[in-house]
Structures are given as C-alpha cells and as structure tokens.
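#help-structures

NK: newbie question. if I give both the sequence and a SMILES, will the prediction place the ligand too? trying with pyridoxal-5'-phosphate
OV: yes, paste both and it writes out the complex. here, I ran yours:
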Amino acid sequence: MPEQRKRIPGAPHGTGPGLRTRLVHALGDPDPRTGAIMPPLELATTFARGEDGSLPGPYIYGRQGNPARARLEAALAALEGGAEALAFASGSAAALSVLLGLGAGSSLAVDAEAYYGVRRLLTGLGPSLGLAIRSFDPRSEEDLARVLADRPGLVWLETPSHPLLRVTDLAAVIPRAHAAGALVLADNTLATPLGQSPLALGADLVLHATTKAIAGHSDASGGGLVVRDAASPLWARIRRIQVDGGAVPSPFDCYLVLRGLSTLAVRLAAMEESALRLAARLALHPAVHAVHHPSRPEHPDFEVARRQSGGGPALLAIQVRGGEAAAARVLGRVRLWTRATSFGGVHSLIEHRRLVEGEGSAVPADLLRLAVGLEDPEDLEEDLLQALEGWDSTA
Ligand SMILES: *Cc1c(COP(=O)(O)O)cnc(C)c1O
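OV: that's the protein plus ligand as structure tokens.
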C-alpha cells in the first residue's frame, strides 16, 4: 500500500497512483537498449547530426538540453502539477533567472522572512538590475495591503519561513496579489512538493532549491522552477535565460537529484516524524524557552499549517535560556548532530542561525536551528538532552 499521507488540498498527487509509486517511476522505464532499470547517464555536451544535418532527437548541445536534465524537469513539473519545469545549477541560479526575467523597471515584494540567501540576492543585486525590491510580512494584513497598493509586478512568498517556520496562508494571499495585478512566486523548498502545492492554490511559479530535501544527501546542488502557464511571457524569458545564460546543472547532478526524488516520500516521513517528536520533547525542557515548529499548538500559524500542509517540516528552531552564550554552549556540546548549515539531507544538522546569516541578521541570538536527518530519533533526542544538561537556571 502506498503511504497514506494527509491529503494536500488540490494536490496533483492527491489522486491516481500513490505518491511513492509516482516518485519511483519518475526514474523512467528500463533503458530499451540494455534493460538497465536506472536511467542512463549521458555526459555528452554535444549531439551528432546525420548526413543531411538532421538531429536524431531534441538535443543539440549540453547547455541547450540533455536527457538527464529533461528527465529531471519532467519529474519536477509532474510533482508540482505544473505545465513545465526548468532545472538550474542551484536554487540561487533559479532565483536569479526570475530576477533577470522580470527585467529592469519591474518591482518585487519579498517575504521579509524568506531564506536569507535569496533576500541577499534580491536586495543586493536587484537594484543594480533595475528592480525595485520591497520587503513585507505576508502574514500581516496591514503589511500585505500596504505592499499591494504599490502594485508590484511579482510577489515572492516562502512558506514555511526561515528560520521561525511561520506559515503564510497561500489560499488567502495569492488571490489578493493577483487582484492587485501581481504574479506570485512561492519558494517551496522547505515544504517540498509533498508538503504543499502552491500552483494548485493559484501561484504562477514555484521555486525549489533541489540541493535540499529533493536531492536529499548533501552531495548535489540544484534548483528548479515550475510554471503553471507555460505560455506566459515571463516564462519564455526565463527559458531563454536558462539556455543562453547557462546556469544549468551537470547531467550527473541531474541524475543525483532525480535519484533523491525517488526516495523523497519515505525520507521525509521519517524526518518529519523525528522533528515532531523533538519539538514536543524540547517544548518541555526547562532550558528551552521557545520551540518554533508549526506542529506545536502554541505556534502562531498552527491552524493555517494544519489546513495547508501535508506534514512537516523536518526543521525546527529552539531558543535556549541564557542568550547567545548558552546557545554556543549547546552547539559546542552536541556529539551526534553535525554543526553545519543546510537541511534536507540524511545528517541531522545544527547551527547558530544568526552567526550563519552574519551582520544585519534579525534572528534572535539565543536561537539554534535544527535540521532533522535520518538518524534514530532516540539518539538525536538523547544527544540534545545531554548537550542541554547543566544549563544555568539563574540565567
Ligand atoms: C537553500 C535555499 C535556496 C538557495 O538554494 P541554493 O541551491 O543554495 O542556491 C533558496 N531557497 C530556499 C528556501 C533555500 O533553503
């Protein structure tokens, strides 16, 4: 029996074959030449023409397209229920392609709690590209109305947010943005295509850093864009930017990302279960004064998350008593958790988010971000509890 996840409203994978079946079969049929059940890996950057100059298939040159990338793009489009997908060398390259596609003179409103790398890209490079960038809080009615009154060309959402895991009500915000004449992009990296379906809720574009949970093993960088309407002028420009700009993933990276995708459902289910368990346990710990995870009833977006999400995320943040020094102490004492940035891989990672984001970060100094991997949850819990031991109750 396919795993019965909570059904995601309007999800393209809500009916038909089970999700796990779809993910495995996204690898394609056995290779007719050899019977190999895993997709072949064609590394060629150029494709031979016949005597009359014709090509045997759709490929001319590696940057323009290749079989590994085509397989990955088809899988991403199917999974998000989109018309088409494009793969990039990283999530950031996908984001940059959107900025270039919008072009000089466009304006953009971005979630103030979006992934800091994307915010840095937008606010750092956007103005030199002739883009007007404004930050806003899509969970505040007042802020949403204020920013939409300026009639931005694109509204850039990311839910759950980084690292407080605030959840934006996509079904409420997207129609508002459309009514104001804006296109909507949703960065679905954290939620994954299994957690929520922004296109089904009206979004025009979905962005993924496939580097994270989709590739899933911290050994391949990648990005993806999925579009609802492949005839849109913006999409035509982004397509050109992918091919002519050339920030494309290698065939091997496409292979790794697609392979990761085939096991995404089972990996996520295990990771999300561990995250839930850790969130519940840490909420009871006297050294922890806040746990940020939308599964917690005290989370401000608990209800929205329940409506919108199929599960997860496999990420949580905690705030420890005693400020930055106490957070540093915990970080220094973990043995099983790896001190590293990123998430969605097999290793559980812990980081002091404010330190990683650097100057100007709005993340509280006593906050630790926990990216849950595939180790036994008992071991992960035990390690955190020993790292929290001996905290100063007077701090
Ligand atoms: C990591 C990440 C990105 C950027 O992806 P890279 O592959 O690191 O360039 C974009 N958005 C989100 C939500 C991310 O977590």
